[in-house]
Design goal:
Elements: E1 19-20, E2 22-28, E3 34-41, E4 47-53, E5 56-61, E6 70-76, E7 83-88, E8 91-96, E9 102-106, E10 114-119, E11 127-131, E12 134-138, E13 146-150, E14 158-163, E15 170-174, E16 177-182, E17 187-192, E18 200-206, E19 211-216, E20 222-227, E21 234-238, E22 246-251, E23 263-267, E24 270-274, E25 280-284, E26 292-297, E27 310-314, E28 321-326, E29 330-336, E30 347-349, E31 353-358, E32 362-370, E33 378-385, E34 404-407, E35 428-429, E36 442-450, E37 453-461, E38 465-467, E39 489-494, E40 511-516, E41 521-529, E42 539-546, E43 552-560, E44 566-570, E45 577-582, E46 591-596, E47 604-605, E48 612-616, E49 620-628, E50 635-645, E51 651-660, E52 665-672, E53 675-680, H1 690-693, E54 703-705, E55 709-711, E56 720-725, E57 729-736, E58 740-745, E59 748-753, E60 759-760, H2 761-764, E61 765-766, E62 778-780, E63 784-786, E64 789-790, E65 795-800, E66 804-809, E67 827-831, E68 834-838, E69 862-865, E70 871-872, E71 876-882, E72 888-893, E73 900-903, E74 909-911, E75 914-918, E76 924-931, E77 942-943, E78 954-961, ...
Length: 1025
Amino acid sequence: MKNRIIIFTLLISVIFSQSWNTTFIGQLDYPQFVNDVWGYKADNGKEYALVGTSLGTAVVDVTTNPFGPQQVGFITGDESTWRDIKFYNNHMYISTEAEMGIQVADITNPENPELVYEWDGVSRAHNLFQADGYLYVIGADEGTDMEILDLADPAVPVRVGGWSTEYLHDVYVRDNYAYGCGIYSSTMYIIDISDKENPVTETSWTYPGAAHACWLSEDGDFLITGDETSGGHVKIWDIRDFDNINMVSEWIPEGGENKSAHNVFVRGDYLYISYYVFGLQILDISDPYNPELAGYYDTYPGEDGLYEGNWGVYPFAESCHSYVSDMEAGLVLVDFDGCVNPDPGLSFSPDIFNIQATQGDTLTEVLTLTNNGDEGSTLFYRIEATGISPFENPGGGPDEFGYEWSDSDMETELSYDWIDIQQHFNTEEVQFISNDDAPLPIQIPFVFPFYGYNYSQFIVNPNGWVGFGSDNNEYDNISIPSPDAPAPAVLALWDDLNPENANCNEYCAGRVFVNIDNNRAVIWYNDVARWYSGDMEAFFDFQIVLYPTGKIRINYRTINGSPTATTGIQNQDGTDGLLVSFLTDYIHDQLTLEYFTGETPAWITFDEGANEGQILSGESEDVVIQIDTGILEPGEYSTGLKLLNNALPDISIPLSLTVMDPSGDITLNITHLNDWNLVGLPVDVSDSHYYSVFPESVPESCFGYYDEYIMVEEMEPGNGYWLRFPSPGSTDVTGPALDELEVNILEGWNIISGGSETVDVNTGLTDPAGILVPGSVYGFDGTYVNLSILEPGKGYWVRSTEAGSIIISSQGRSGFVRLPPVYPDANTLNVNGMKFYFGENISETDPTLYSLPPKPPTGAMDVRFSGDTKLCASDECLIEVTGNGNPVRFDCNIKDGEEWELIDESGRAYKCSGVQVLELNGESEHLVLKKITPPTTPISFSLSPAYPNPFNPVTQIRFTVPEMTKVNLSVYDVQGVLIDKLVHRTFEPGAHIRNWNAQFFPSGVYFLVMESGSFSYSQKLILMK
């Protein structure tokens, strides 16, 4: 079962977010107005939402694919803003305020609902309630104020009685009482209905407000009412004594003083409120005297309007999904954390697909899903192929949702493409009431998908943006994503613009037009002025184009003056988005900017319905994925499978496909860095000379490793090499694929390479004799880094305890899964992505487990502890840094109670805490990582052995003095000639460090002499270059 901790204190940090303690599941948008919602579970075991629209009532399957609910049936009706729905015994009852009575539909087969009867006892009614086999008809314009119908035959309701005192807007029924809401007098009635033919008012009370809807607490002791009026909110009444009914609490959301609640429902200890512009609000009413916010989901971001947004909610589904109806957003499925049901679990296999095929092949791959969750749970899933980047040269992204952007400056396939709507008959001007406020929403004849929601309308703000929620009149643009910026929105040129409007000042200029058809919506800002800020020549001519596919284009025709704008897109609550520019001169004349999420690869398909379903606890299901290579050219293709589910966050499963020419050849694109790279030969080639394989490389720069670096010319599959390139780029390599390689290795370090497909070290690198040192696979991405993936065309270091052979296979074998021990209590130092371990309390271990490969060639970055390791079990460690001219980033993580410092060659100390970025003085440098200990006064003079010694070109000199005294440190050659004076000054008592950099001196033997008063000591130094 779920063990949930519900936080009932609403923090300021979440006030402006779209949800809290709830999760968005799915949405179904409607082109027409949506009103009420109800739900039921059919005999086929599936849950369905019953959605009222202005044109009829929809039956929506919310089980097969809750992430994308599908309408499967529809009962048409006369057009009406109001529609109410209830369910009983496989029948749906529908009331409207059109003159068509009460519709009765048989929904035994949800995909073929049938209208079987229309009860004409009233011509119209506002609400319905069903309880104990009776239907209560409320708000009718004929008959009594509450008509009671017997549903003994659910297809043919029969009137048995009624009640009249005043117009009731809604009613709740339990046991022998009906609780009626007299909205016009704001009077609540408790009506005894034990005799259905003659209901009798038990009691009533009137209060300030507008009694609109009500529901009982689970124990029946408290009645919750909701008022529909400006300032209308929720009240809780103690009704245990009908003669002494008292209000015990009331609740209103922050900012709701002039807003309205709508409908209320109780499930367990929670009150679900459809709160119009505040969306779904959920209260914990376990203590009715102190209701507390437990969660919310705002289906209508923003707070504009009064009776806009969330109309109804059905919170009673076994799945714990709440069906929320929003007048604009349609049907939205939401999961509330406080609704407890058996939790599903998810495991899947494989977690990566590496597929190889010959052009023209049709393959099937299988993804196995298992529900390993709680007993009685149901796992819902849907699998989609993720979109391939729509751009060859994206300018940014993808963001969390998957949007990327590019423009006509960067993308060869994207050209400036202005759409001329000036003379088009369908072009209309947008009429602004001010220079900061949008007018009413504009309808579009297609569904526009944006950040997972579908929209059928948008707003146009005069400040250069188009939105899909409420308006935002902020003219002082900021960076995005941000909850304080317009959202959800396309910010083409968000700035303080000043088009013609009803309150125009002397500086306003330019007009805004829209032109919409079934294929696109164009919003044109025609030479709109910026609000006067000293630049009288700032006018901007641009257009926003929305397409049914979700693609967005911004065409900038003329930009006069420098905009200080924000350009980008962001989602519903400003937590995800793409920033193209902010306060920069990015925008210019005749520029087209495009946003898109990419196109689903056509070569991946599923049988109809086979990519979605539900799995009961303890069961598994195989999903068959079809791969068609007939539409592809030979080469490499990469995409992914997106696994939507209700157990874990959305999962992306990588999928790579290598398509071989029917002749057997494949072409692989191998990327490389500037300067040194580790490379390999990923295919079988007739000419294996390194310059034939990589013609962009630097001549005479290919080196293999056989206990030392040796220049080579011919490359062999399975071996790796250092190779130098003058600039970053990529190379296409063509030849027959290499599926499996047996690679001979020597004792010690070896450079290897894989075959034609990406190989997971844990499944595709087999070590039959167990000779590989655990954790010794290293790649190079500018510095050494531990890796678990071998990519085609790349080289990798491995260390072996003895000579032998290993097998690299794309098919996977037993794998190489042994890992070195982990030291949870060790201090760690992250240097440019490599993690080092240090500290005097680290237990002894096999030093080979933390050894590093031989240093890369001169010019490549390398960092290591002295001794070619990344482990130092001491309180003082020497770090050897070989630089390439770039700064080195040190990130220290020190355990409690210790302090460490980094000391560079100049003697400058840096506290080892958090991130330090150090600039190197030359190509190589030595740093000391030292534990800081409380200072103690030495009892004598001392000169410690220099380290390292022999050295090249820097060695470190440590000495101590017991008192404040003058010290001379000098270096002499073997002839006794003074060649360098290192120190000649007074020192405080304690230990001191100085470095000698002998880069300008020849190799040889030297003598270091320390003198202080009567103390004199010397030692021999050996410089080896």
